[in-house]
Structures are given as C-alpha cells and as structure tokens.
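Field reference: sequence -> structure
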Amino acid sequence: MNMPNEFMPLEFLISALVTLLVVVDPVGLTPAFLSVTGTLPAKLRHQVALRACLIAGAIMIGTAVIGDWLLRQLGITLPAFRIAGGLLLFAVAFEMVLGLRLERSSKDAEQAVEEHWHHMAAFPLAIPLMAGPGAITATILLAGQAAYRPQWLAVLLFVIIVVMAACMASFAAAGRIGKLLGVTGNVVLTRLLGVILAALAVQYVVDGVRAAFAA
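Structure field:
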C-alpha cells in the first residue's frame, strides 16, 4: 500500500525537471548570452557564464529552501516579483534595441571590461534572465509541493543543479553560434532579441498586475 509513496519522488523529479527546463529555457537563453557578452574574449565569456550559473543556482536553491517563508515574513507577493522582474528586463531590452549596450561596450577599454564582467554575470544574466520571476515562482511552487520533506527537497535541489548545468552547456556553445552569425548577424540578433525581451517584460508586468488585482 505504501509503494505509490515510494515512487512519488520520481514523479516529482520528472515534474520539477520539465517545469524548470521550460521556464528557465537554457537553449533560449543562448542568444541573450551572446548579445550581452558578445564583445568579451572567449575566456572571460566562459567565466561570466560560470559565474552567472553559480549566482542563478544559488538564488534558486535559496528560494527552494527559504523562499516561501521569506516572502511571508516580508509581506511580498508573487505578483510583485513579476512586476519588478518585468521592469528590470524592460530596461535591458531598451538598451539592446537602441544599441546602447553595444556602443558602451565598444567604448570601454580592456580594464573597464575586466572590472564590469562580475556585474554582467549577476545582472542581467543571472537576474532576471535565468533566475527571473518565472523561475523563482516555479521554484517556490515546487518547494510548496515538496512540503519541506527532506527527500523531495533534495530532488528539487538536484533538478536546479541539472538545469544550471544545461545553461552552462548552452552558453559554452554560444561562441560557435556567434561565429556563424558574424558581426551583422549579432547586431540584427541583438535588436530582434531586444524587441522580444521588451514584449516578455511587458507580459511579466501585465501578469503581475492582473494577479495583484485578482487577489
């Protein structure tokens, strides 16, 4: 009679893996990673990718462990997360569409690049592109489904690590994609991605406002 409960962690594993892979979308993040880090040397780009994955993974693991409790303590709602994340993402999209990011990167000296790559990994890559409102929301919901059972929570943490590894693999292939696209292709991709990110940002805000008024 207890056998179904024994297999529940496996079902939870599949559910959590599919959910976070779809929400984070490691393959879909590759063009964004290229747009943000396109002017960096390959070695520095790899360091940015690793740092971004570590930061995003730490945020999602922290969210899985204490996210729901922390939100309740601070009185912050999930719709508020969506609105804030959407506004941050729109700021990034605005720079991409107008080419401000590329212009600033081209004017920066090598020293400036060395100083700012740490910030680039944290924002906008780790937050809000990787560990954005959708990923944080999904992680909190999955942690609630785990109901603080150690075995289930361990499964969720494992899934987060797997998703971050998938992101790292996608970022590692970004350089080859960049060479195929060339300079013109990268510029066009940056503008196009900026428009898509702007639409996604607006959608985050709209969903957040709707959820806030529906509550």
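Note: Residues 105-113 have pLDDT under 50 and may be disordered.
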